[in-house]
Structures are given as structure tokens and as C-alpha cells.
Amino acid sequence: MTGDMAARLVEAVLFAAEGPLTPQEIARHAGLEGSALPHLAALADHYAGRGIELVERGGRWHFQTAADLSHILRREREEPRKLSRAAVETLAIIAYHEPVSRAEIEAIRGVQVAKGTLDVLMEAGWVQPAGRREVPGRPLIYATTPDFLSHFGLASRRDLPGIDDLRAAGLLDPVDLAMEAAEAHSLLEGEEEDEARDEPADE
Fold it and tell me: Where is this region: Disordered (predicted)?
């Protein structure tokens, strides 16, 4: 194998690698019998001063953007935020019952809404204040935003999935399904007891 071919193989291995590699790993992937170090040094000289450079860090080699260009190519990336279960439940309640107050959300969930839960949803741009309820105390009420519809691909709130859709998609919590089944069973037993009371007694 010629020196140029070996250098090309080393270059190809580095380009395709998902992370930095040791000279031994590079040689193995490239199918080289000797050391990859001479080819790495030649490639480092070849790429010196170009838009990308071949560098060695802690015994491992990789390509990187030239240090004097990195500030030009830096991009702002929005990190996806994972919502807590409480935030997801709160968002769902607002979406299906809006406009709702904090007290109404808590009544539906059965627990208090944590201080930062609504803040997280508003920071995400999915929930916004929608005025105040005209009742004593005039509590603040909340509603979803156009960004909420856009993020979830909904034309309007009428496109929100129903309970059957959620069940079919496997999005209902097993505990919720068990409670739903238990409630249905309890209701059925209640109906059977009512029917038994209505039946005339045998003479």
C-alpha cells in the first residue's frame, strides 16, 4: 500500500468517526499494518491553517473547526425541555378546560399546583394569562397560546384528541386506565344493585 493511499484511508476513518480515536484504533479501522502516527502528522500539517484542523487531544485525534473561525460558526441551539408530569397534567387541564384559574386546576388534579409549574409553561410560550375571573377575589385565569397549537400541530383546540384517541395511542397512564376500569366496574355494580331493589319480591 502506498503512503498516499494509507494517508487517504486514515483521513477517511477520521472523517467518518463519531468521536476522537487513538492511533491504534485508526490503524485498525484503516487496515494498516504499521503505525498511523506518521500519516496523522502529515495530515495535521496538510490541514494546518485551513477551515478545519486535525488535532490531538489526550492521545486521541479528531477534526475540529479552526479555532479562529469557531465564533463565526457558533449557533444558538434551543435545548428541548422535558416537562414534569405535573406540568404535562397542568397543560392538559388548561388545554381542555381553558380558561381556568389555579384553584380550578388544583380542583381537577386533586393536588396543589407547584409554584414554578405555570411559570415553566408560560416560559415555553404555551400558556398565557387570559384575564381574571369575575368572582370574589378575581383570580387570574390561564389559556393556551397560538404557539401551543403550532408546536403540537393543531389547527384549533377542536383538534385536541379525545379520550378514545389517547387510549388508542397508548398515552393514558396504566394507573389512569385501572382507575377508569374500577370506576366503570363500580358503576355497573351500582346499577345491578338498583335493579335488584326494583325487582318485586317473591310471594
Answer: 182-203
Q: What is the pTM of this model?
A: 0.46
> What is residue 174's predicted lDDT score, i.e. its pLDDT?
47
d(CA 81, CA 85): 13
User: Could you tell me which residues come within 8 angstroms of residue 6 by beta carbon, excluding any fewer than 6 positions away?
Assistant: 30, 32, 39
Across 56-66, average pLDDT: 87
Q: Cis before residue 99, ω within 30 degrees of 0?
A: yes
User: Is the per-residue pLDDT at 47 higher than 90?
Assistant: yes
- 123 vs 116: CA distance, rounded Å: 10
Q: Looking at the DSSP assignment, which residues form a beta bridge with residue 54?
A: 63
Question: In which element (H, E) is residue 140 found?
Answer: strand 140-144
CB neighbour burial string for 176-194, b if at least 16 within 10 angstroms, e if fewer: eeeeeeeeeeeeeeeeeee
C-alpha cell at position 90: 397542568
* Domains of the chain, earliest start first: 3-73 (1.10.10.10), 85-160 (1.10.10.10)
